[in-house]
Amino acid sequence: MNPVFAKLPTTIFEEMSARARANGAINLGQGFPDAAGPEDVRQAAAEAALNGWNQYPPMRGLPELRAAIADHYSSHQGLSPDPETEIVVTSGATEALAASILGLVSPDDEAIIVQPAYDAYAPLVRQAGGVPRFVSTRPPDWKVRTEDLEAAVGDRTRFLILNSPHNPTATMLDEADLGLLADFCVSHDLITICDEVWEHLVFDGAAHRSLMAMPGMAERTVKIGSAGKIFSLTGWKVGWAIAAEPLAAVIAKAHQFLTFTTPPNLQSAVAYGLGKDSSYFTGMRAGYQASRDRLSAALTDSGYAVLPSAATYFLLVDLAASGIELDDRACAIRLVEEFGVASIPVSALYETDAVTTALRLCFAKGDATLDEAADRLAEARKALT
Ligand code: PMP
Ligand code: GLN
């Protein structure tokens, strides 16, 4: 058996969803919305399944989807990827990450991973024969510090794996961070694999800026996106990697032996969706922002210390500052088993040096569910402090 995978636990997302099911708990753990998702986009998928092409689509993705991705990023982020040579459509961002890492990382290459980190990055680097080098961020600001990056970089470092907006901390890189990171990548000649799946879920009037748009970064950034996040349809698993032609060519070679293609009806519906008017995207953000504010206010009222959530559909509570002395994992298990609310302990997303005082809650749920969860969490805080 391959030790890279055989030694791994089941992901924390799957574990907490199973605990939620076993305990009949409200699931604010694994991130997925409880709404049905935009009806016109689902209708487009149904229409394409009934009347469209249901055989293998082109390996790099339907031309109409690649064109829609290029147009979308041109109007929303000022980028201009070539749909023919610089876009590879994949089965979710997870496959885009796998194809990018397996395609680009060579044995003994080092990749800097910023913790807490999405759980797929390090195992994929190891499977490619590479070596993860971890840099940790901590509350309250979760900033990536240049001195920590400089301490982690060495002669064999070839990659930086970044995620902005960031899951689970709900922070996003600002212009100054992007400038420092771009300088770091250029000066050390690194390729950045930039996981931007949360790019449309930004709040309080903020706009997402891609590292790819910074000076010197276009030829050294792999930008990863996910329709599952953009359209609140996490089961769809339509994603993409965007990179300069020589990088995209190798990513496509890896993709052809991972999944080869992605269901064409879903690709066609995503092409339709990406062309939607900007009011769709602002409306979606406003809806999630209202849910964020609702859950955050209720938790604050019952004595929780809630950290600011600038993006994603997650917020963190600081357990220590809320007067709860349990570590995050112990607390998450008690919450799901005794109080009926599933969450994600942030320490599960570190391999070293873990922060053990933060719990992640998903607020992509209807008001009644959020209110019920907040009531249960209020009871829990009374019992646990
Ligand atoms: N990266 C990050 C940071 C994520 O949060 C997620 C899903 N929550 C993914 C990648 C995976 O996206 P997909 O479902 O499109 O594979
Ligand atoms: N990315 C989702 C989250 O952070 C879960 C994805 C998964 O279950 N692998 O909750």
Describe what this molecule looks like in 3D.
The chain is an alpha/beta fold and 385 residues long. 43% of the residues lie in helices and 15% in strands. It has 14 helices and 13 strands. The chain has helices at residues 3-6, 12-23, 39-51, 63-77, 92-104, 121-127, 146-152, 175-187, 227-230, 245-255, 264-274, 278-301, 328-339, 367-384, and strands at residues 26-27, 87-90, 110-115, 131-136, 157-163, 191-195, 221-226, 239-242, 305-306, 314-318, 341-342, 344-345, 358-362. A seven-stranded mixed beta sheet has the order 2-8-7-6-5-3-4, with helices on both faces. It has a four-stranded antiparallel beta sheet with strand order 9-10-13-12. Strand 9 (305-306) and strand 10 (314-318) form a beta hairpin. Helix 12 (278-301) packs parallel to helix 14. The longest helix has 24 residues, at 278-301. It is globular. It starts with a helix and ends with a helix. Bound molecules: 4'-deoxy-4'-aminopyridoxal-5'-phosphate (PMP) and glutamine.
Can you summarize this structure?
The chain is an alpha/beta fold and about 375 residues long. The protein has helices at about 5, 10-25, 40-50, 65-75, 90-105, 120-125, 145-150, 175-185, 225-230, 245-255, 265-275, 280-300, 330-340, 365-385, and strands spanning about 25, 85-90, 110-115, 130-135, 155-165, 190-195, 220-225, 240, 305, 315-320, 340, 345, 360.
Percentage of helical residues? Answer: 40-55%
Query: What's the total number of strands?
Result: 13
| Class by SSE composition | alpha/beta
- Heteromolecules bound: 4'-deoxy-4'-aminopyridoxal-5'-phosphate, glutamine
Tell me, what's the shape?
globular
Query: Order of helices and strands, N to C?
Result: HHEHHEHEHEHEHEEHEHHHEEHEEEH
Q: How much is the average pLDDT? A: 98
The residue ranges in which pLDDT falls below 50 over 5 or more consecutive positions are: none
Fraction in beta strands: 5-15%
What is the gyration radius calculated from CA atoms? 20 Å
Q: Distance N terminus to C terminus? A: 45 Å
Query: Tally the helices: what do you get?
Result: 14
Biggest sheet: strand arrangement? 2-8-7-6-5-3-4
* Main β-sheet description: 7 strands, mixed
